[in-house]
Specification:
single chain; 93 residues; alpha+beta; three-stranded mixed beta sheet; 2 helices; elongated
Length: 93
């Protein structure tokens, strides 16, 4: 079996002046086709423009429903939680 062909991304380069003149058209084309647009200032590339892709963050929300907060986590800690190095037996450098 043959796989269906993937759509081809566009790869375009523009000078800053060309980009200013055609900005909306370039963005519209990029949003439809994907790809990369590189903008040059003289001979130096200065900006790479790509289609936005939603990124799923596997860490954010990963503990939802798995943890429970017990007690007050906003107020300052009680005095017995604070100690100086001399009280804990540590030596100062």
């Amino acid at each position: 079996m043959t796989q269906p062909a993937k759509p081809q991304h566009i790869y375009l380069t523009f000078t800053t002046d060309e980009f200013k003149e055609q900005c909306l058209e370039i963005i519209a084309e990029l949003s439809k086709c994907g790809g990369v647009v590189i903008i040059f200032d003289g001979d130096e590339p200065i900006v790479q423009l790509t289609q936005y892709e939603e990124v799923h963050d596997p860490v954010r929300g990963s503990f939802k429903g798995r943890m429970e907060i017990l007690g007050d986590i906003v107020s300052p800690m009680p005095a017995e939680w604070y100690s100086t190095p001399a009280e804990s037996g540590e030596q100062l450098p």
